[in-house]
Write a structure and sequence with these properties.
Blueprint: H1 3-38, H2 44-53, H3 55-71
Helix pairs in contact: 1-3
Length: 72
């Protein structure tokens, strides 16, 4: 009977570790890489053009942001 709470704690620890393995890369991607790829702080037109040219990457960034914040 004593192995059940320990097994439950181990499952919870593994789930927590997996969640952090997803949150950390998606967080770095959405907070570190994407803004430097798209945003031009001096010209909004250039920012819009960057988003239009790499629409799939921008959409992937939105998906990563949602995943990151839902899991965090």
């Amino acid at each position: 009977m004593n192995s059940t709470p320990m097994a439950s704690q181990q499952k919870l620890a593994r789930l927590t570790g997996f969640i952090y393995l997803v949150v950390v890369p998606t967080g770095f991607f959405t907070l570190g890489y994407l803004p430097t790829s798209f945003i031009n702080w001096k010209d909004a037109g250039v920012t819009a053009q960057n988003i239009k040219e790499a629409e799939l990457l921008f959409r992937f960034g939105i998906a990563c942001t949602v995943i990151c914040y839902l899991l965090f």
